[in-house]
Amino acid sequence: MNSTEVNFDGLIGPNHNYSGLAFGNLASSRNAKNRSQPKLAALQGLEKMRSLHKLGYRQGFLLPQLRPDIDTLRRLGFRGGDRTIINKVARQAPELLSMVYSASSMWAANAATVTPSADSHDGKVHFTPANLVTTAHRAIEHPQTQRCLETIFHKAEHFTVHQALPSQDRFADEGAANHTRLTDHYGQKGCGLFVYGRDAQTHLNQLDFPARQSLEASQAVARQHGMGEEAVYLQQSTEAINAGAFHNDVVAVGNGPVLFFHQRAFESNSQRHAFSQLSQRMDFKPVCVSEERVPLGDAIASYLFNSQLLASSDGDFSRMRLIAPTECHDNDAVRSYLAELVEDLTQPIRDVEFVDVRQSMSNGGGPACLRLRVVLNETEIAAVNPDFLLNDSSIDRLQAWVNKHYRDQLSPDDLKDPDFLNECYTAFDDLTQLLQLGSYYAFQRN
Ligand code: SUG
């Protein structure tokens, strides 16, 4: 049976803002407290989805999470109605507002790790929402992520949505951003490549920034999904983490048999071992970008490796394409590298398309961060809740919804205003009506 990759992008919420919450993510720190443009951000995200749809790929989306997360504030001891709570937090602990107002669920690559049915022990597609324990604003995402995935992948005979791993540093999990499913053909058994930042031997004092993915978390997810011996583990280099690769998808991206990565992305012993395992199991095609050709700093600044690496729209891995952020075009070293890459017939990347997702990029999220990849066969695609698969007219409807409800600009200080809470609730309410989701969000049920 034919299988294909479906990209589910995070729909960017009306609360998109720059709060400098992600230590180790250089763009987030650089843009802290700047004014964001939520409407533009969401429209850029939707245009990226439209581009993929136009190129002939299947495109879906994930719902934005309800923000502000008043339940979290209640668990922190604030009492009263929702507006009262916002007023109290603004007066007593304003730093908590950015935590409960982040639109970080847009970065769907961190929503979950996904194992296709061809690789799992029971022939179902498995999802484990990421616990995201490293940062407070993201650690609150997983319950809503689970609910969203259960809404989209609701047929239990095809899909299993697990709970997140225990929320402990030891099991720190950031989802698909550190996981790549490699295979010769989408429908065949493949390998899950799990990249981690630290294990029990890691000298944490050598790290300037947090290593967000632990080996124990990756192993637990592989176990949960029944991957057994099919999982391959690979350690990120300290150098990459210290240079700002807070997730592996900042320095590597893979699809099919190809792993496109920076020379400095991985610890060398670990790389040797993992690559030899991969080569034994498939026709593995590593494409390494040297430090000499594109320095690590340029790779991270441009997000070259946060491009989406796609098979051709008919699933051919010998004619692949990169969907790269426009920042790659702006960077001289990267632009000239890409021009040569597509002419180099020793590797299969034939085409590069540039997309403008600058609003997300300013918080450290490129094209690949914005999507969760799910490999599905035809029966499974038919079992997906169809409201979450996009076509031109549903993208138009979501754009009209954004244009109606989103602000042009938002500054972190605006989060203190309880009227903004009402604006967000109105937008979320309208979205659930548009999608006929009933009382999906907590505020609609209270
Ligand atoms: O977790 N930024 C996100 C960006 C995630 C990008 N995802 C992948 N690489 N897959 C993060 O660091 C910034 C929020 C702020 O500062 O307002 C933030 O959470």
Please explain how this structure is put together.
By secondary structure, the chain is of the alpha/beta class. The chain has one domain (3-241, 359-445): 5-stranded Propeller (L-arginine/glycine Amidinotransferase, Chain A), CATH 3.75.10.20. It has 18 helices and 15 strands. Strand 7 (191-196), helix 8 (215-224) and strand 8 (231-235) form a beta-alpha-beta unit. Helix 2 (38-54) runs antiparallel to helix 16 (392-405) and helix 4 packs across helix 17. The longest helix has 17 residues, at 38-54. The relative contact order is 0.18. The mean pLDDT is 97. The structure holds N~2~-(3-carboxypropanoyl)-L-arginine.
Number of separate domains: 1
Instruction: Predict the CATH topology.
Output: L-arginine/glycine Amidinotransferase, Chain A
Q: Report the β-strand fraction as a percent range.
A: 15-25%
Distance between the termini: 45 Å
Q: Can you describe this structure in just a few lines?
A:
With 446 residues, the protein is of the alpha/beta class.
Question: Secondary-structure map with pairings?
Answer:
Elements: E1 3-10, H1 26-30, H2 38-54, E2 59-62, H3 70-75, H4 82-92, H5 95-101, E3 112-115, E4 125-129, H6 136-139, H7 142-152, E5 159-161, E6 179-182, E7 191-196, H8 215-224, E8 231-235, H9 238-242, E9 252-255, E10 258-262, H10 268-281, E11 285-289, H11 296-302, E12 308-310, E13 320-325, H12 326-330, H13 332-341, E14 349-355, H14 358-361, E15 371-377, H15 378-383, H16 392-405, H17 418-434, H18 442-445
Parallel strand pairs: 1-2, 4-5, 7-8, 10-11, 13-14
Antiparallel strand pairs: 1-15, 3-4, 6-7, 9-10, 12-13
Helix pairs in contact: 2-16, 4-17, 16-17
Bound molecules: N~2~-(3-carboxypropanoyl)-L-arginine.
